[in-house]
User: Fold this.
Amino acid sequence: MDVKLPKLGEGADTGVVVGIFVKEGDTVAKDQAILELENEKAVASIPSTGAGVVEKVHVKVGDRIGVGQKLITIADGAAPAAAAPAVAVPAPKPAAKKVAARPAPVAPETDDQPVAESADGIVNENPTASPSIRKLARELGIDLHQIAGSESGGRIVAADVRNYIQRLIRSAARSAAAPPAEAAPAKPVPVQVDFSQWGPILKKPVTPLRKVIARRMSESWNSVARVTQFDDIDFTRVGELRKKFAPAYESKGVKLTLTPFVLKAVAETLKQHPIFNSSLDEVAGEIVLKEYIHLGIAVDTDQGLMVPVIRDVDKKSLCELAKELESLAAKARDRKITADEMKGGTFTISNQGAIGGAHFTPIINLPEVAILGLGRGALKPVVRDGKIEARLLTPVALSYDHRVIDGGSAARFTVDLVKAFENFGEEAVKI
Assistant:
């Protein structure tokens, strides 16, 4: 039998193979993990749907595969049964190789080529079609990556090609009829530069994760009216509490860092200023105020930025937050975190204190309306009660969506956040 890629979840129809656990001749059991697939920001293990001996592995590391594509062929050990599937192996190979190169899907992202997307608005990165359809497409100069297949498994048939050509004709007619002033400005066409003419270079492919980060950051940058509020927060009391209670936490197997204090202080401040815990629904023309506080924590990994979400922060103790934070951060760095563990955030925190640097302007993590960035704390002279004291000051930057939040609200939020740190209660730290 052929083991095929199952439906992975909503909006997860393709992925990149990042690890293969079996080889030809291996015996596999039902539900045994056979490979790892990277999709969006998560890496998922794909189990075998049957048991037997692996006769053929149809994919390799780096292949982008889609739902319904063959992964492996297995048999119950009888040699005759293996012959038939082995002949059928080459069928999916051309599509897989074509997807690996993927030169064409770049073009559809420009605004002047709206027809380069399938009917559901998603580029078909893994087109499946018969040899006759592929020949027809070559003769007409049509890229099958730009056509959504209507048959089972997304297979492209002649009717899909005809529909695509008709859409091209209608689009060309609309462009010709529209006045020049109404035409949307085209994005600059990317130009490929041969950098090797000036010296040695090293190339590496853009990972799926980096593509996701780039797309989401661009969406936020282009759609949000951003403003960033800067300040310095006195972490002296929080630092003292951390040093005092760190041994007690370590005895419980928990490392107490400053980040759990940040989570708790931000949650308390969000309760006082619920507009920062909201989202803008542009379709309905409404501001959605959330009655739960799920905080996203930006985690720096070798593969790129990930944002796991800690849920119901306001209802958890500092010890519980420290445990969950450590667990999620480790899973993110090991690429074992699931997509669900990075969804549903209401406010994001980006803490660069362990790395260094001071103020910066964090980009809002849509559909949220605000994000808090923290830099590295340092001892600085501060005047208190007429005397100069050395205090641990941490630079903070609050970026917010000015379509939803006004400057006065941001200033008040920052003032209350400063108070939350300076007046952090010892009872909240005790185990």
